[in-house]
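Consortium newsletter contribution from the modelling node. Members have asked for a concrete example of what our holo predictions look like. Here is one, prepared for the pyridoxal-5'-phosphate complex that several groups have been discussing at recent meetings.
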Amino acid sequence: MRPNHQTILAQQASAAPELRNAINVSGTMTWLGASIVVPEAVAAVSAALPQFFVIDDLQRQASAVIAQACGGEAGCITASTSAAVTLSIAAAMVGCDLVQVERLPDTQGLKNEVLLQAGHNIHYGAPLDQAIRLAGARVVTVGQSTSANVAQLLGAITERTCAALYVVSHHAVQYGQLPLGVFIEHCHARGVPVIVDAASEYDLRRFIAAGADLALYSAHKFLGGPTAGIVAGRRELVRAVYAQNHGIGRGMKVGKEGILGTIAALQAWGTRDHAGVRAREAAHLSLWQSALLGFAGVGSAVEADPTGNPLDRLRVTLNADTAGISAWSLAHALASGDPAIFVRDHEIEHGYFYLDPCNLHPGQEQLVAARLRELLAAARTGAVEEIPLAELQARKLAAQAGWPLAAKEPRCQTRIAAP
Ligand SMILES: *Cc1c(COP(=O)(O)O)cnc(C)c1O
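And here is the predicted structure:
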């Protein structure tokens, strides 16, 4: 008798170490499994897996759906936005010339310079400039981290410039950068195509409408699709991106389930009750804000998303002296429980973290509120361990270095000195 899915899953589970339940109040994070995939995409992935498709036909269908959703001429689906960056740069260098496609990442004699503002060279789990260099291109930095101007942009353009990359992200420096419109205007005046990395942006049309040659999005972020990247824009350039699947794109291929799941997620996005989602998220934020009232040394404020997505988060600030615990030790205690609660901690060294409301299953907001109150009450009596930030950072590095051993038994004694 053939084993069914249940027995296979049960066998796998008994062979593997225990996994804890997780509640995600950190946002859409690759290391946590990205987002809750919408039911339409789950159904499409499941229906796709046992079938055969001519992939060119599936991607042609995707092209039409992407063009309609994003307002460009064409589109295609890649493994991720990171892959889409690499393939877009490859496309700008070699177009659809199959001999050149197979020659990459050897770019000798090609136009291979890519413009990137210094404040846009982000790290999203890996360095953005590496995604550019993977194609064989060279990054030419424009300006400094907190300042870029038109003279620097024009001065960076040479006869070897093949493209310019513009990043819209909370990770990027949010001031002193060239506005997208100005960036596009000057690049286009010199014949340089502009690719916009908009991986985490809700607005599917804005960047193409502003004149971008390509706009890149992640299917697995706000869209609630499977892990994939979306490329939208000018037909000739999209065709060249797709052609890279016969070259360096092979190792970054997206399967049938990624293509059909992304199409379903894009279609579902068009009919989603966005106002209803917004209202539910606002209710989570006020629930958490009232849960924190009455704790000395704990402040909270609703903050808008830094790149203008229609999304607010709750900033929770701790004064360790009065609250009895620092922001990082509270975040650590939340992540150490079962269910593990993961907060948004990019700026935790400043003494605050964020609660992100957009990846919760019904009822989880209550668990978060209850756990926050429980830990803050315990902290007042000194019952929650205070750990120096440098020690927590060292443990994280040690856990990475010691994988696949569990974090509690680090093999590698990585330590960084306390400041
Ligand atoms: C998430 C992100 C990426 C990487 O996207 P993946 O689809 O996960 O590869 C790239 N750029 C920005 C701005 C991002 O937010």
